[in-house]
Amino acid sequence: xxxxxxxxxxxxxxxxxxxxxxxxxxxxxxxxxxxxxxxxxxxxxxxxxxxxxxxxxxxxxxxxxxxxxxxxxxxxxxxxxxxxxxxxxxxxxxxxxxxxxxxxxxxxx
Length: 109
Hints:
Layout: E1 12-19, E2 24-31, E3 38-46, E4 54-61, E5 66-72, E6 77-85, E7 94-102
Antiparallel strand pairs: 1-2, 2-5, 3-4, 3-6, 6-7
């Protein structure tokens, strides 16, 4: 008998900010492989090169391979967003870093 263990990579298909009005933001992501389950850890770091990551929390990957997290960020500017998946029997542990821009939108009535 031959045993084969297939391991899929953790990769994001889509990462969006559907609610772009601050200081509270909604982050929504979609995982490319539909079989991956578990939780992802999210962290933000100011700037594009240096700076420490500050955790914005953990969230579960749903049955539709999506996750969402609401967080507050008072300062505007360019940030690095780290999405970390701890790994499972079918997927390796991976951290994905994405550059995001946080702005303010003013509405007048």
